[in-house]
Every structure is written in structure tokens, then in C-alpha cells.
Amino acid sequence: MDAKPTAPGTGSLKAQDYKSDLKPVWCPGCGDFAVLSAITKALAELQVPREDAAVVSGIGCSSRIPAYTSVYGFHSIHGRALPIATGLKAARPDLTVFCAGGDGDGFSIGGNHFIHACRRNVDLTYIVMDNEVYGMTKGQASPTTEPDWTGSKLTPQGPGVAPFQPLEIALSAGANFIARGFSGDPNFVVRLIVEAVRHPGFSLVQVLSPCVTFRPEQRAWKETTHADWAPEAASTDRREAFLRLLDDDGFTTGVLYKGHNPVFAPPHPSSANLADLEKGFAL
Fold first, then answer.
1. Distance of alpha carbon 266 from its chain centroid, rounded?
2. pTM (predicted TM-score)
3. Contact 101, 110 (CB under 8 A)
4. Core vs surface per residue 234-244: b (16+ CB within 10 A) or e
5. What is the mean pLDDT, run by run of 10 residues, along the chain of 283 residues?
6. Predicted pLDDT of residue 6
7. Beta carbons of 31 and 210 less than 8 angstroms apart
8. How many helices (H) and strands (E) does the chain have?
9. CA–CA dist 65, 13 (Å, integer)
10. Which of 111, 134, 229, 256 is the most exposed place for a label (fewest CB within 10 A)?
11. Using CA atoms, how far apart are residues 53 and 49, in angstroms rounded to an integer?
């Protein structure tokens, strides 16, 4: 299957050109700084004209990403970033569409949308900054928090439930590209994002992005992560990818899966105008 097309660029756009004038307000040490940098560097490597790219987000620390970029952005409501991004890509297939969010926004209130976005396999890239905690609302357990984490006053004995497994869910639901990165290795995250954009269909890039404010123990992720899923050796077989996940400790980085599922691209009339659309809704 051919790689998805990207808009031609002049070759002169730099990462800084994709950043807005707003200064990020994340806590010092937040991994999202590195993810923002990786996104802008990926856009520069792809040379996507700024008017041909869009970033859609939901609610949460990581969902501030659109404000910090100079491309089109949509800061939507909690958990609803994916349906909005899906609709945008369906209506404007010429755009390079990113969706950015966190583990709470994407896998809790947005969990059902996540499953069906994977299933629909629309040609967009979903970047999830996963810190296993609700950082913006002061440190509650999130869907990906381990069951014995006792760092929240709301769950002092630990949440006690199995964590959501985003890569397993994405593979089961039909995502076409699945990868995991670590914000402490930003250049590798750039490579993952570039490959995700170039691969046809729905692409998930889970980025382990430490919240050192509410989970200072995550500083140890720098020694825990290991890049054992080489992008050039990504599995193209779902069964093989599932077997890899059976041995995954949650800290393996790289590209898990590159699929060949049919990309959903609804018919898009090239000559549609507002008057024609209004006729379709006339009573």
C-alpha cells in the first residue's frame, strides 16, 4: 500500500515556524514539552504547509497542544477530540490531521470514541501523552494507572482495577499503525510521528510522558524504557503483534504494528458548495 500523500512544501520550513507565540504553561519537567517539540520537528521534516495541517485536542494538560502550534487548531470538549478530527479528515481529506490528548481524555470519557476511531481507520494520527494520572485536576488515578498506586487521596489504597491497555485495544479494534515512544527520547518520537503520518489509516502513537509533579517516581522511566520494537522491523501481522504484547512490560518503545486495513475515505464531492449542501437539508 502506498504511503499517504503529504502536501508539498518549499523545503524551508523549520520546527520553530510551526510554533505559536504562546508560552506553554506546563509544570517544569513535564514530558509534554518534548512532545510538542517532536510534533513541530515532525511537521518540519514532512514539510507540511501550515495551512494544510490541523491539530485537534480535547481537555487536559496535553490538550493545550493546538494553542502552542501555528497550524489550524481545534480545542474541543472532554473526550471528543477523535470524532471531531475524524469529521475534519472526512470533510477535508487534503489536510494532514493530528489529534493530541492524554490518557484521561482519550481512554476514559473518550474511550468509546477511541475504539471506533481505530475501527473506522480514517487517515489521521492520534498522539496520546500518557502519564498514568490526571495532572490538570491534581493527581487522580487515570485509566492507565496501575492498580496499586497509592499517590492519590481519592484512592489511598490504590485504584484496584486493571489498567486500560491502549495498544492492545487499538490492535483489536483495527488501527493501522501502532507505536509507543518516550518523551525523554524526543528524536525517536519525531521518527515515530513521521512514520505514523506517512502510513495510511488511523495511527496511534502513545508517548510515555512523565508527570513529575504528581508522579515524581516517573523520573525513573528514563532507565526503564527500552527501544526493542525497531521501526524497520515492525510487525505486519496482527497475531504476531499480539504475541509481542504478551511479553511487553509497558515500557517497550518503537513501532509495534503496520497494518494494511482498508482506509475509510467517504465520497467527497469536489464541487460541493454551501448552496448545494443547504438543498440537502431543506424541509
1. 23
2. 0.91
3. yes
4. bbeeeeebbeb
5. 42 93 95 97 97 96 95 94 96 96 94 96 98 90 94 92 96 98 98 98 98 95 96 96 96 98 82 76 85
6. 43
7. yes
8. 9, 8
9. 19
10. 111
11. 7
Which phi and psi angles does 125 have, rounded to 5°? -120, 125
Measured between alpha carbons, how far is residue 28 from residues 144, 227, 234, 263 in Å? Answer: 23, 26, 34, 40
Q: Give the per-residue pLDDT at 281.
A: 85
Contacts of 34 (CB under 8 A, 6+ apart): 183, 184, 186, 189, 209
Ranges of each domain in the chain: 31-280
Bridge partners, residue 178, by sequence: 204, 257
Name which of 88, 89, 96, 100 is nearest 24 in CA terms.
Answer: 100
pLDDT of residue 271: 61
| 138-145, Cβ contacts within 8 angstroms, sequence gap of 24 or more | 138/214, 139/213, 139/214, 139/215, 142/102, 142/103, 142/104, 142/107, 142/108, 143/103, 143/104, 143/107, 143/108, 143/111, 144/103, 144/107
